[in-house]
Amino acid sequence: MKIAVGTDHGGLILKQSVIEAVQRLGHEVLDFGTDSPASVDYPDFAAAVGNAVVSGQAERGIAICGSGVGVTVAANKIKGVRACLCHDTYSAHQGVEHDDLNVLCLGGRVIGPALADEIVQAFLSANFHNEARFTRRLDKVIALENQ
């Protein structure tokens, strides 16, 4: 899979380990920055990741900021993005399996590289369970987005 990765300055340190984890799992990385510790605005990077996923340029995305909250809020403003802040492996795989999560959000100042590696692995190895109860709920989420 192609995985879009983007971060503001608050997630810069974690970004490199996330990229290494994605590559180690055999996926291609589309790096949307930032590459500098200078202060930048998280919505720009969440938008780059989200738009790459929605356009089909990437199959999934990973957005990082200091807490993970900002990129989650910003990414979810893009129609077609289902972003979730996950700091545990269960939420990362269950979000994909039940909710068709397509953008994983992480807090670079909240978790370290070892946990991020496990979360990224859980997120990228999971697949949506195309069962009636999950598709029914996803359809309702999409209807909310279209209101």
List the helices and strands and how they pair.
Blueprint: E1 2-7, H1 12-24, E2 28-31, H2 42-55, E3 60-65, H3 69-75, E4 83-85, H4 89-99, E5 103-107, H5 113-125, H6 132-145
Parallel strand pairs: 1-2, 1-3, 3-5, 4-5
Helix pairs in contact: 1-5, 2-3, 4-5
Family: Belongs to the LacAB/RpiB family.
Active site: 65, 98
Pfam families: LacAB_rpiB (PF02502)
Q: CATH architecture, please?
A: 3-Layer(aba) Sandwich
The H-level CATH homologous superfamily, spelled out, is Sugar-phosphate isomerase, RpiB/LacA/LacB
Number of strands: 5
Low-confidence stretches are none
Helix content: 40-55%
Average of per-residue pLDDT values: 96
Total domain modules: 1
Gap from first CA to last CA: 31 Å
- Report the sheet with the most strands, covering strand number, pairing sense and barrel closure: 5 strands, parallel
**How many helices does DSSP assign?**
6
For this structure, the CATH topology is Ribose 5-phosphate Isomerase B, Chain: A
Give the strand content: 15-25%
Write a structural description.
The protein is of the alpha/beta class and about 150 residues long. It is about 50% helix and about 15% strand. It has six helices and five strands, in the order E-H-E-H-E-H-E-H-E-H-H. The chain has helices at about 10-25, 40-55, 70-75, 90-100, 115-125, 130-145, and strands at about 1-5, 30, 60-65, 85, 105. A five-stranded parallel sheet has the order 2-1-3-5-4, sandwiched between helices. The protein is globular and about 45 Å long.
